[in-house]
Write a structure and sequence with these properties.
The structure is a homodimer. By secondary structure, the first copy, chain A, is α+β, with helices and mostly antiparallel strands. Chain A contains five helices and three strands; from the N terminus they run αβααββαα. Chain A has a three-stranded antiparallel sheet with strand order 1-3-2. Chain A is elongated and about 60 Å long. Chain A starts with about 30 loop residues before the first helix and ends with a helix. Chain A binds a DNA duplex through α3.
Amino acid sequence: MSEPLDPAMFRDPDCTDRAAQPIRVGGKWTASVLRCLQDGTARRFSELRVPLYWITPKVLTETLRAMERDGLLTRTAHDENPPRVEYALTALGRSLLGPLDAACDWARTHGTEIVEAREAYGA
Amino acid sequence: MSEPLDPAMFRDPDCTDRAAQPIRVGGKWTASVLRCLQDGTARRFSELRVPLYWITPKVLTETLRAMERDGLLTRTAHDENPPRVEYALTALGRSLLGPLDAACDWARTHGTEIVEAREAYGA
DNA sequence: CTGTATCCACAGTGATACTG
DNA sequence: CAGTATCACTGTGGATACAG
C-alpha cells in the first residue's frame, strides 16, 4: 500500500527537480482495512478495531479518512443515538483486492524463505 | 513492498500482546530496485542510482543490504581496481515481480481515479 | 459509540562530506 | 567506483485522556 502511485518510480534522466516524487497511496493499515471489508459487508468503527491489533482510534480515523479521500471507501453516518457509522469499499477499493491478494499469496508462499534468509544472513 | 509479511495482518482476538506485530519486508525503494533488475542483467551500484531519482548512496546501500539479507538479490564484488560490484536478483527476488507487476498495472489503470478523488474531496 | 486533542518516540529518509 | 560517517529533519504511528 505504500507503493508509489507511479508504477515504476523511475524518473526522466534529464529531470533535475529532485522534489518531483511520485505520490503515495495508503499507509501501514490500508491493506488490512481493505481485507476487513473485502466480503462486501459494511462495518462499523469499533468492528474494524478488533482485527487490526486494537489499532488506536486516532490512527484508524486517519487511515479511514485517507481512504475516503482517495475514493477507496465510503463513510455513512446514520443519524441515530448512539451514533452509528459504517464503512464500505467502493468499486475502486474493490479493484485493489486483486493486486492485494497477489501480494498476500506471495507472502504465504515465500514468507518462510525470507525468514530463513534472514537467519542465514546472521551467520 | 511495505506490506507486512503476514498476508492478512490480523491477530488472534484472544492475543493480548500488542507488540506481536508481523515482520515487514522492503522499504520505499525496494520495488524500484526490483524493477531496475527485472530484465535479469546484473547492474552496478552507480547504474542503479540514476533511474532511482539519484537516491543517496547511504539509502541505496541500506536498501541493497536489506534485500541481500532477505534473499532477494545477490551482491558480487569483483576483486579489481577500480572496484566493481554487481547486483542481481535471486529466484526469490524474481518471484516478487509477479505481484509487483500486478500492483503497477493497478496504478497505471486507476491512478487518475485516485488523483480525481483527492481533488473532489477538497471541494 | 465514534471519534478529538495532546503529546511524543522513533524509524525512515536525506544532505553533505569523507575514505579505501 | 563503491561505499561510510555524521548530522538533521519529518511524518507516521502510537499512548493517553477527553468530548459530543
